[in-house]
Amino acid sequence: MAKIAYILLCHKDPDAVIRQAERLTAVGDYMSIHFDASAKPAHFKEIKEALANNPNVTFAKKRIKCGWGEWSLVQATLNAVQSAVDAFPRASHFYMLSGDCMAIKSAEYTHHFLDNNDADFIESFDYFESDWIKTGWKEERLIYRHFVNEREHKKLFYFLFEAQKKLGLERTIPDDLQIMIGSQWWCLRRQTIEWLLKFVRQRKDVVRFFRTTWIPDETFFQTLVRHLVPEQEIRSRTLTFLMFTDYGMPVTFYNDHYELLLSQDYLFARKISPEAQDLKRRLGLLYVAQGVQFQISNEGRSLFQFLSGRGRDGRRFATRFWETESTLGRERELLIVVCKKWHVAKRVLERIRQVTNVPAIEYLFNEEDTPLPDLGGIQNTLEKRHRHRRALMRMLFDYFETDKLIICMDPANLELLNDFAADRSVTRIMEIECQFSDDYLTGHAMRVGLAGDQTSTDTLERLLPTIRNDMVFESDRIRDAQFEHLTRMREVSSPDANADALTQFLAVPNDKALEIAQTDYLFAD
Q1: Whole-Å CA distances, 295 to 261, 268, 291
Q2: Is a pLDDT exceeding 60 seen at residue 56?
Q3: pLDDT greater than 70 at residue 288
C-alpha cells in the first residue's frame, strides 16, 4: 500500500502546523517540514518541541529564508524532499503541501487511489505554447536573469530587468530542456524523486539557469519531471483542488463548502480559511475515518464560473458570490493615513516604511499612477479600485504576505473610510492636520482646475476662503463619523505629541514613533 511523505512548506501559525502534522501522520504516513527561516524562531521551536517524539516527522536539515517568486522556494522544497528521502525509506509517494491545504478524502481513499494510479501527478504544460500564463511576463521570466526579490526590492528588480533588456543581455534556455509550467502542488513517486535529486546533483548548469528565473516553483519540477519520466507515466494535473478568481487570486473555502469539497475528484484542497474551524474539524475527522464512500461529481469549477458570472452577465448589480459577507480578515490591520497635503502624507509614509518596514501604498484610490503590483487587472483604473475596494485590499494583503498594511487616502474619501471601518478587520485611521497658506491654496486651486494662470487676484481672494472652508468641512466630517480608532497628527503640535499619535496608530514603541515625528521636513511645502 502507498506510504506518503508529505512535503510541507510553511511560515506561520505553529498550532495549525502541529495539528496538520499529527493528523496526517496518525495513519502511518510521514511528513517533512520546512519552516521559513525568516519566521519567528519561537514558532519553529514550538513546532520542533511538539513533534519531537513523532517518528514520522522530520525537518529540512537546512532552513532558508523564502521569498515569493524566487529560487528560495524551490531550494526549500528540495531541502525538505531530501530530508524525507533520507528519513523515510518506505515512503512510496511525495506530496507537496502548504499550511493552507487540507485533505478532502479519507486516508484510506487516498492510499487506494495512489495504489491504483501508478503515475506522477504534476501539472506540466508547454511554457510557450499553452495559455497557462494569462497576463504579464512570459519569456521575460526565463531569458533575463532575476537576482533580487521583486516584492522586497521592486525598484532594483525592474531596474536590472530594464538594464538587461536595453543592453541585449538575453540568455539561451538549456538546449535539451522543454520548459514546462504548472501548479506547484504535485504528487511524485519515489523513483521520480530519486531521479530528480540525482539530476540536480549532476546538472549544475540547469540549477544555475533556474536559480535566476522568475517564479521557478511553477517551472522547475514541472520541466524536470517531463524531462526524466516517460510521458505515459505523467498525469498533467494536480491532486490538490484549487480555484482562482478572474483577478488571479486563490478562492478561499469556508465552513459551508464541506459537501462541495468532498465531491471533487481531488485528494486535498487549498485554500482553507483560517476562520473555517468547523470545516477543519470535519475534514480532520474524515481523514482518519474508515469505509467512507465518496460521490464524485466534480462540479466545483463549473459552479464557480456560473455563480461568479451572475455578477457580470444579465444581473449587472448582483453581488458576486465570493464577495458576499466579504472581509479583509479578522486578523488583519488596515492603517489609513488621511491628509489633504498628499506630499506630506507621502513623506510620513516613507519614514514609516524606513522605521517599521510595514508595507505601505500611497494614494491608490486617488492617483491613477500609484505603483501597484499586477493583480490581474483590478488595479488598472481608479474606477475598478473603488468598485472592488475590499477585493483589492485582500489581494494586496496576500501579495505582500502581511497582516498589516498602510495606505494613504484623501479626506474627501469618507465613503471609503466608512466602508473599511465597518469591516471585521482592525482599521486604524490617522488624520494629518496641516496649515494651509494662501499660496498653497492658490496652487491647489490651479491643480484641481478651479483657477488658472489668468485668474484675477480678486477672483482668487473670493475663492480661497471657500476652498479653506471646504477642507475644514472634510476634516469635520471625519471627526463626526466617530471612528473607533482615530488619531491625529498636527503640524502645530510638538514632536512628542505627534509621536503619541503615531504610537497609537502604528502600535510601535514610542522611541520609533518619535524617530518619525522628529523628521524636520515632514510638513514643508
Answers
A1: 11, 16, 13
A2: yes
A3: yes
